[in-house]
Amino acid sequence: MFGFGAKNIGIDLGTANTIVYSEGKGIVLREPSVVAKNTKTDEIVSVGSEARAMIGRTPASIVAIRPMKDGVIADYDTTVSMMKYYIEKSLEPHSGRPDVMVCVPSGVTEVEKRAVIDATKVAGAKDAYVIEEPFAAAIGAGLPVMDPTGSMVVDIGGGTTDVATISLGGIVSSRSIRMAGDKLDEAIIAYVRSHYNLLIGERTAEQLKIDVASASVEAAKELESQSVRGRDLVTGLPQTVEIKPEDVATAIQEVVQAIITAIKETLEETSPEIAADVIDHGIVLTGGGAQLRHLPEVISEATKVPVFVASEPLDCVAIGTGESLKNIDVMK
Ligand code: ADP
Ligand code: MG
């Protein structure tokens, strides 16, 4: 290899966040997967955090788009624009086109995979490769994925929760469910609306989740109430309401239980040897949703397996995707 040309990059193209890893450097970019567009001219107004701040606050002429939904591309053109912007931002000036590794959720269709590869090339990659997200998450979490021992990783992102057992460099069994961070936010919005007569926005619900949500209704009783602003459904006027953490915990129970069910089903499908390995080493949680309060305890209680949160859970997939760039020559 010669020192010219671009450094290869790995991209975690997530429903909530896009993270870029540059070979030899590590993570060089972390931005929300959001693009703001002018609805009349179709021009891009802003990308990333600036666009995210506009969600729920746009005038008629601007729309804030999240081009990824449930882990896959929902708006192809906007995804390309966003990736183009992030790829350019991650490269050194005057470097050539990089080879790019992008992760996709396990269980995506060939068509969805193809769309990611095409979008990445149109966005500026010389060549594009995909890696399955739970596999990348496991590498990023430091699990011994190549060893003849079973590991289990649960990646809870914005759109999907991906559960997988991994051994000898491959995924043994996996589940991908469309129940993750966004569904937690939606459940909170619905609950606050029906129990407090208050209409709150997506961003407010997410903040409430980060501030007080707990996977355990019992444990939530120890947390302090949170005041939240929204619109009173009766008067139609702005209103501040104190929300009890146990209510937030109750609101999200269904999503938490769906995640637990997916974990149990994946465990039931594995061989007794791998199940035994998982009991020994525990389940590792990655993704932003892994930071939900008391989630490890609740999963552990339901599965009778120890559960840990990876260090830097939000970065695991990007790190694993970046590390697997080493194998690009093999994949070629
Ligand atoms: P994706 O890979 O889908 O882009 P991420 O792994 O970046 O998703 O995680 C984003 C999700 O994590 C969002 O739904 C966000 O609200 C959620 N999240 C971030 N921090 C926390 C937290 N402290 N508690 C619970 N959820 C969180
Ligand atoms: Mg992710």
TrEMBL record:
Q: Please, one GO biological process term?
A: cell morphogenesis
A GO cellular component annotation here is: cytoplasm
Q: What is its main location?
A: cytoplasm
Concerning Pfam families, the annotation shows: MreB_Mbl
Q: Where in the cell is it found?
A: Cytoplasm
Chain segments annotated as coiled-coil in the UniProt record: none
- Gene Ontology terms, MF aspect: ATP binding
Keyword line = ATP-binding, Cell shape, Cytoplasm, Nucleotide-binding
> Where do the annotations place ATP binding?
15-17, 158-160, 206-209
What Gene3D superfamilies does its record include? 3.30.420.40
Q: List, alphabetically, the InterPro entries matched.
A: ATPase_NBD, MreB, MreB_MamK-like
Record-annotated membrane-spanning stretches: none
Its domain of life reads: Bacteria
Query: What is this protein's function per UniProt?
Result: Forms membrane-associated dynamic filaments that are essential for cell shape determination. Acts by regulating cell wall synthesis and cell elongation, and thus cell shape. A feedback loop between cell geometry and MreB localization may maintain elongated cell shape by targeting cell wall growth to regions of negative cell wall curvature.
As for family, the record states: Belongs to the FtsA/MreB family.
Q: How does it assemble?
A: Forms polymers.
Spell out the HAMAP family in the cross-references.
MreB
- This protein is called Cell shape-determining protein MreB
Q: What does UniProt list as this organism's lineage?
A: Bacteria, Bacillati, Bacillota, Bacilli, Lactobacillales
